[in-house]
Amino acid sequence: MKNRVPFNRRQFIKGVGATAVLLQLPVWQSCKPTIYKGILSADNQFVINNVLQILFPSKPGPDIYDIKVEKHLNNYLTDPLIDPDEQQFIINGIGWIRETAQEKFENDFLLLSRKQQEKLIKFILSKPWGENWVSKLLTILFEAMLLDPVYGINTHEIGWRFLHHVPGKPRPENYNKYPEILQRKNENIIITDLKQL
Amino acid sequence: MKLSDKIFDVCVVGSGAGAGPVIYELSKAGYKVVVLEKGPWYRTKDFSKDEMTATRRSVYTPNLKDEPQVIEDLNEQGNWEARSTYETGRDFWNGNCVGGSSNFMSGYFARFKPVDFKLLSTYGEIKGANIADWPIDYYDLEPYYEKVERIVGISGKVIKHRFAEPRSTPDFPYPPLQENIVSKWIDQAAKSLGVQTIPMPRAILSQKKGDRNACYYSNFCGSYGCSSDAKGSSRVSLIHEALKTGNCAVIPNAKVYHLETNGKFTVKKAWYYNAIGQKQYIKAKIFVVAAQAVETSRLLLMSKNKEFEQGLANNNKQVGKNLIFSAGGVGGGDLYYDDLSPDIARELARPGVFVNRTVQDYYELTDPDTGKKIKGGTVDFLFEHANPVSKAIRQKWNDKGNLRYGETLKKHLKNYFTGLRKLKFEIFVDWLPTDNCFVSLDCNIKDKWNDPVARIRVGYHPHDLKVAGIISEKAKQILSKIGARNVYAGISGAPPNNLQAGGCRFGNDPATSVLDKYCKAHEVNNLYITDGSFMPTGGSLTYTWTIYANSFRVADVIKSVL
Known about the structure:
The structure holds two protein chains of two kinds. By secondary structure, chain A is an all-alpha fold.
C-alpha cells in the first residue's frame, strides 16, 4: 500500500508566472536559484534554512539541525527516483519566495527580519504554489525527522524519541537500504535453486 | 542448451498469488516450469522495516516516469478525463518482484460465500451493472480454500455465525495471532448493539511451519516484506517449495510484452525484455498469465497476432472489460490515553499485536428505498498503520484545510503521536461491474520499452456507495460505543490500487466472457489466466484467498491436460 500524497504536476506552476517559468523569460532570471553539484548555493541554502526554521522551530522537540534536514533536502534534490519536476519545484519555490519578498518588502529575503519572513510565509500560503511548496517542505522535514538514522538524518533517533515512536525490526542496514537495494533490479539471472539466493 | 531452445511444460507470467499455486503444484508434479517475473528477486534478508524503502520511494514498484499508466476519471463536468499517473502521482502499481504484491499484503483473508458465486440469480439485475453468476459454485472451490489454509498457512478461529461459509474441516490449521486489548472492546461494543464480531483470519503463521518462522509482531506488516517468512507470500510459501523440486526456473527482471501464436490459436512463445533490455523468448506447451488484473489485460491486448487482430483471446472484445475492485469506504475514531487508566492505556499502546476483528452481519441488507433484500458487505477493524512519516503527513492539514506549521504543528504532532491511538475500519462491498470500469491500451503514452501503457477507466456504480453508506453508519456506532472520539467515515468510489480483479471474466458463453470455467481462454488452446482477472463479481471481501484457491484449482486442471 502506498501512503504517498498524490501531487498534481500542474500545481508546480506558479499561477500567473507559469509561462515565464516555463519559457525561462529574463524576468525570473535575476533571482532564479542554481544548484552546484546537487548542493544549493549558499544564499539559497540560507533562504531555505530560514523558511524551514519557521516551519519547524526549535521548540518543542528537535530543531532542523538535529534532524539534519539540510542533508536530507540535498539528498532529495539529487535522488534519481524523485521526479525531476518535483525537485525543480523545490528550487523554483526558493526563487519565487525571493521574488515575492521583493514585491512585498522591496528587499531580498536574505535581508528580511524574522517577523517579515513569517509574514511572507503566511502570504505565500494563500497562493496555490506557496501552499504546495510549503507542503512539500513539510514532507521533507517529516522524512528527515522520522526515517531511519541509517540515512544520516534523525540523529540519535531524536525525531523518534520526540514522538515516542518505536521502530520496527529488523532495521535497515547499509546493504539493504535505499538506494543500494535497487541493484537487484539490474540482476540478469535465472534462479533454479534456493542456494543461489 | 540455450533457454530459448528448450520447450517447457508450462511458462508462467507473473509470480504473485495467482501464479504461485500453479508454479508449486506443477513443479511438485514433475513438470518443467519457467516463471517470467517482471520485477527482481528480493530475498527475505533484503526486507527491513524501513519506511523509506517500503513506501517513500518507488523501490518495490516501478518508477512512474519509466512505467506510467493512464487513469480515466469522471470530472466535474461529467466527462471522462484521462491523465497519466506520472502527471498525477496516483500510483496504481503494486509489488513488482518475485512473489508480487503478496509480499506486501496485510494478509486479511476471507473466503467468498456461496451467495457470491450467484449474485445475479440471488438478488437479480441492477440497472447499469453487468452482474453475472460464476460458472462454478462455492463447493467447487471449497477444497482449494482448505488447501490454502494448509499450504500457504492461515491462522484464525472458526466461529458460528449467520453468514459462515460451509467448511470441510472444523477449524484453521494455525491458532489466532495475538490480539490487542481493543479487540475485546470491539467484541463488547458490538455485542451490546446486537452485532456479532468474528476473528479475522490472517495469512500469517502463528506457529512455525517448515523453514518459515512464526510471526514476531514487528508492528510493520502491510506494505512491508516479512522478515520471519510468517506472511504467506507466494514467494516463501509456494515458490521456495517449487524450487526445491529442481523442476522450476525463475527469471526475475523479465518483462513479458508479447505472447506469440502459431496461426492455429495456440501460444508458442512468450517474448520478454530481460534485465538489460534484450528481447528474449521462452517456448512452452502451456502458458499461464497472472500479472495482476490490469497488466494481464494489457498483455493480452498488446499481443496482437494474425488470428487475434484485437489482442490475444479478444475476438469477442471482452478482454479488459468489467474490471472490479474491492472497496467501499474507510472510517475511524480516536482512542485517547487520557480517557483510560495508565495500565489500560499501556495495553492499548502495545505495538505489534493485532486487532483482527471483522463484522459480517451486514452481508445481506434491506434496501431502505425498496424494502427488498440486497447484497451488503463486511467491515474490518484495524489500527492506523504505524508508518511515522505517513502518519505525520496526514496531520499536515487542520480541520479548516489549512497547513499547520511552526510551533502549532510540532505540538499537534506530539499530541497526536503520544496522546491517542486511531482505530480504523474498512468497508468492503461488491464493486459492481459496469461498462465504465475497464482496461484498454493508451494510444499516446508509452513505457520505457516504447510499449503502450494500460489505460484504466475507474467508474463505479452508485449502488456501491449506497450499500457502503448503510454499513458505515453501523460501524461508526461500534466505534462510538467503545468510546472513540472524532468518529468519522468516508464513503468513496475511488478504487484501491492493490485489490483489483476482473478484466478477463470466466463464464460459459464466449460472447460475454474471456475464459471458460477452467480459466482457459475460450479462443486459445493453451492459455490460462489465474490471477483475479477471472472474477465476474468480487464478493464483499478481499480477493487474495480466492485468487490463491482458484489458482490451485486451475493447477489441477492443467495437470489433467498435460
